[in-house]
Amino acid sequence: MTVTRSVILGCGSYLPSRRLTNDDLSRMVDTTDEWIVQRTGIRARHIAAEKEFTSDLALAAARAALAAAGVDAQTIDLIVLATSTPDNTFPASAAAVQAGLGITQGAAFDLQAVCSGFVYALSVADGLLRTGAHQRALVIGAETFSRILDWTDRGTCVLFGDGAGAVVMETQSQPGGRDDRGILTAHLRSDGRHKSKLYVDGGPSSTGTVGHLRMEGKEVFKFAVGAITDVIKDVFRDTGYSAADLDWFVPHQANKRIIDGSAHKLGIAPEKVVTTVDQHGNTSAASIPLALDTAVRDGRIKRGDLVLLEAMGGGFTWGAALVRW
Ligand code: UT7
Description:
This protein has 325 residues and is of the alpha/beta class. The protein is built from ten helices and 13 strands.
């Protein structure tokens, strides 16, 4: 019995040219390269130029993904952009991407689930594609977290960076077996009781300002590994796959200790883990597609590989998706 699945045709990413190292940061706040590397695994992050907006990053990543997929922008009828740092309160930054690509058909909107944004966007786009309402989607994660950081707070400003990643997806009929390509399952979770542990202290309806990121780092850290492993166990239960079946684990890139801890708890071999947090920092919704694109372009992720994606962030929100590339 054939099934309709959303198959990823290609991916792309974009990083702003300015690279900020830990040593650069140690000249701005009371920190050291040693502390940052030991606690987070981060060595450098990229920072958007003054006139470079989230939609500019997203558009560059989208163009790269379309080129990699060999797809004409005019065939895209759905754009879902995961971001917590849109250009403006409205319209959606996805509209700017749509206009930048010269697309006038279909739908374009932003989705906000902070660091879980890309997994949420992938799942939402997959659902819309499989209803038959849309045929081909661009799913993008793009952020300029540098704009919402308190650059005097060493507990947060060393952790985040800017960037964007994108995938092109379309519906295809698959045989309905273990070798099916596409999104095999996606599980989304949230628990709003934790909303004050990682938040931005401003917004259009509360303060009328943009605000700055605030985080109880230890609380987030404590929750992360348990939440991540729970939702991934649901993915395995749902699909019948196990850690041993995976070719690649592409987790949200927040902290190397969280990535290593989750992989260890799940029994995922270290050589299957794609890690980019050392060079990108935490780019929130952009981190998974940036890591995916890194591992596709360096030849690690190949067509037919089984790839597990996972994210956790503000809300708290978290989720996981299993994809056959
Ligand atoms: O995408 C999801 C979002 N976020 C996350 O996943 C982040 C989750 N949390 C974390 O990654 C970690 O909690 C952090 C990396 C943020 C912090 O690591 P920690 O081991 O939990 O350190 P801590 O917050 O308990 O701070 C330990 C010490 C403190 O000093 P005292 O009070 O022990 O004297 C901090 O003031 O480290 C100090 N500290 C720093 N020192 C040098 C905090 N930030 C820095 C810094 N440089 N940048």
